[in-house]
Amino acid sequence: MTFSIVELMETQKHEQYALHRRYINPSLARVQTIIGFDKIYVRGEGSYLWDADGNRYLDLLSGYGVFNLGRSHPVAKQAIQDVLTADRPNLVKMDCPLLAGLLAEELVKRMPTGLDAVFFANSGADAVDTALKFARAATNRPRMLYLDDAFHGLTLSTLALNGGMEFRKGFEPLMSGFDAVAMNDLVALENQLRRRDVAALIVEPIQGKGVYIPADNYLPEAQRLCHKYGTLFICDEVQVGMGRTGRFLCCEHWNLEPDIVTLSKSLGGGYVPVSATITRRRIHDATFSALDRCQVHSTTFGQNELAMAAGLATLHVLDEERLIGRSATVGEKLLKGLAALQERYEMIADVRGKGLMIGIEFKAPRSLSLRAAWTAAETARKGLFAQLVVMALMRQHGVLTQVAGPHVNIIKLLPPLIIGDEEVGMIVAAFDAVMAEAAKVGGRVWAQSVQLVEHALKSQV
């Protein structure tokens, strides 16, 4: 009997949510149903998804930033197919794979001065965990600092760097010596650093949960203070890197020269999980400090042929199609269009971002009738209004977005870097229509709130 994955997917596609409820994550499957996101997607191409009924959706979620090239990019696909066809000797382990060396070389070309040593792993959390280990080995210091509202992963070590209490709850005690400092508070940062026991400060140049952007002088001064006290400065570029903000690395906006950079998500071209931790040779060598320690930090799949090929293809496409510059120019148009809505709708508190990483924040309305509806929703669960907007965008306009984090009224947009004027127009028009509906108590946006409020109240019981 032959095996056909295509036939299996076609015959079983209507079972996907039942299978997840039964075997994987029933809570997540239930949430998708409640908010109307329980679609059966059958195709993804470019900036769009299609469901089993032929409906098209503009994907502004991009797999949490995985699809900077868009979905099913032919160059990345071909690179992977070529490696498979070549029957490459994958994961020999007792060798130094060619493609890993070539991808490392290409990454180093794009790094700030002095970052010339690369470690490959599988995910953003892996990359951050590697950075933490490298920092401890290089400094012989125990402590780590991170910023309030930070998100660096959900493994046990990276959870200790997570500023979101909702993610941390239930997993304590976390690793000791990991302490938060407030963004933009340089005095508090220096008070921690002057103890000279901090191995590293890790920052997202723009924070993913909330799209929070630091004050202009904060990151340069934080880097200066780290160097003053012998602390390493780590830039987590897992989501904001790879052209997302209009530069290859987001930290380039501030001319930073970090000691360690982490990359992942879109490095795999949307096909293969891969991450890279790029650092200075002296820091790298402090971990691999002797011949008998050459594998003291390792991961089984970190240099696999498919991931390396996808990474090389991704870098080629970013350059060949000039997607980084496109991110900057198209992002500026989108920001301008959304900012114009802020002038018209009182519930839009802020529109911010760089390149194609954009946050839209909402605030309570002034009118008494709308404020009553807002208060009812927010009393049930903080941040519920943003979820209502997300649902309306999806149901009425076929635009897939997400709330930027737990308990915040912020929507985050992470469209593929390939979008153009047509998609910019679609996004602005969809937000315009939804905010116009939200300005009416009897509008469809608020009509969705009853069901969500009921579920929110039940979850608190």
Number of helices: 19
Task: Write down the CATH topology of the largest domain.
Answer: Aspartate Aminotransferase, domain 2
End-to-end separation? 51 Å
- Round the Cα radius of gyration to an integer and report it: 23 Å
Q: How would you sum up the major sheet?
A: 7 strands, mixed
Mean pLDDT: 95
Backbone shape? globular
Strand order, main sheet: write it out: 4-10-9-8-7-5-6
Number of domains: 2
Classified by CATH, the class of the largest domain is: Alpha Beta
The CATH architecture term of the largest domain is 3-Layer(aba) Sandwich
Give helix % range: 40-55%
- What class, by secondary structure content? alpha/beta
Q: Tally of extended strands?
A: 15
What percentage of amino acids are in beta strands?
Answer: 5-15%
Could you name the ranges where pLDDT drops below 50 across 5 or more consecutive residues? Answer: none
How is this fold's topology laid out?
Elements: H1 5-12, H2 16-23, H3 26-34, E1 41-45, E2 48-51, E3 56-59, H4 62-65, H5 74-85, H6 98-109, E4 117-121, H7 124-139, E5 143-147, H8 156-159, H9 165-168, E6 178-181, H10 186-193, E7 198-203, H11 218-228, E8 232-236, E9 260-263, E10 275-279, H12 281-287, H13 305-320, H14 323-342, E11 348-354, E12 357-362, H15 368-380, H16 384-397, E13 399-400, E14 402-403, E15 410-413, H17 421-438, H18 444-447, H19 449-460
Parallel strand pairs: 3-13, 5-6, 5-7, 7-8, 8-9
Antiparallel strand pairs: 1-2, 2-3, 4-10, 9-10, 11-12, 12-15, 14-15
Helix pairs in contact: 2-3, 5-13, 6-13, 7-12, 10-11, 14-17, 16-17
